[in-house]
Amino acid sequence: MSFLDLDTGIRVHYRDIGKGRPILFIPGLAATLDSWNYQIPALHDDYRCITVDMRGHGESDKPCSDYSYDEMCNDVSSLLKTLDLHDVILVGWSMGAGVGLNYVTGFNDDDRVTKLVMVSPATPYFLATETEPYGMDADTAASSLEGMRIALPETMAAFAGANFHRTDMEATAALFLSQWLKMPAYVGYKYFKTLLTEDLRDKLSKVNMPTLICHGRHDQVSHPGWSEYMLQYIPDCHLVWFENSGHALMVEEPDKFSEELAAFADK
To answer: In what helix (H) or strand (E) does residue 180 lie, and over which residues does it extend?
Structure first.
């Protein structure tokens, strides 16, 4: 396994495969770099594919830290500098899309990232509001947060079941859950609290690069309404629907996702 010691004080597990323009893949809450396994063989001949376990996940360090969007973005910034990456396509799944949105609007002063891809985004806000009736209601959010604190396996098992629209992916759901349970409860609690409390709506108009949003029509985790909302406010944005996918579209429709990502990268 390959590791990087970041100047933010943590050691992260990563893979660096292929050649060409770099694509950095950021997984979602609890997820690991193996979330992107089907994209590597499809893309590595033409792109340098970097996948990473974010802090608290997989084989990376798991400190008792803030687990805020800013903290994660500082890790991303350090990783990009340590690997000396430029002209990067930043791809984030679920909460990883929130990391990407926060990064390109507040941490990209050196312009290392030049394109943003948000996959099943759990952003700009995860909760339903009076004006945007999308996402999780307050009572479900509170019970899920408490579940992260005192019943992590059961809570994550429920999320695993909600990830897929296809009914032939029981083994994949079990694999994902086994990876997610490498995340300690104190990490999950803090990450999920960030997801519930940080509102990135005011950052959308500040995105200054081409942006692709990919969303499954049947997503039960991240409400598709938020992707339609973002399409209105991000200046140079394109939304692609995945008709046979729920939340984990990169494994439910892997070829379509890889093709859409490559087409976007080549524009």
So the answer is: helix 170-180
Contact 176, 247 (CB under 8 A): no
- The per-residue pLDDT for range 29-73, each reduced to its tens digit, is 999 999 999 999 999 999 999 999 999 999 999 999 999 999 999
Q: Are 154 and 34 in contact (CB under 8 A)?
A: no
Beta-carbon count within 10 A of 226 CB: 25
What is the Cα–Cα distance from 249 to 255, expressed in whole angstroms? 10
Give the CA distances from residue 23 to residues 173, 182, 222, 258, 262, in Å, rounded to whole numbers and listed in that order: 25, 25, 23, 12, 10
H/E run at residue 257: helix 254-266
Report DSSP state, residue 94: T
Q: What is the CATH number of the domain that holds 189?
A: 3.40.50.1820
Tokens standing for residue 229: 């909302």
Domain limits at 175?
Answer: 2-266
Instruction: Say which residue the tokens 């995105």 belong to.
Output: 207
> Number of structural domains, the chain?
1
pTM over 0.90: yes
Pair of tokens at residue 71: 């903290």
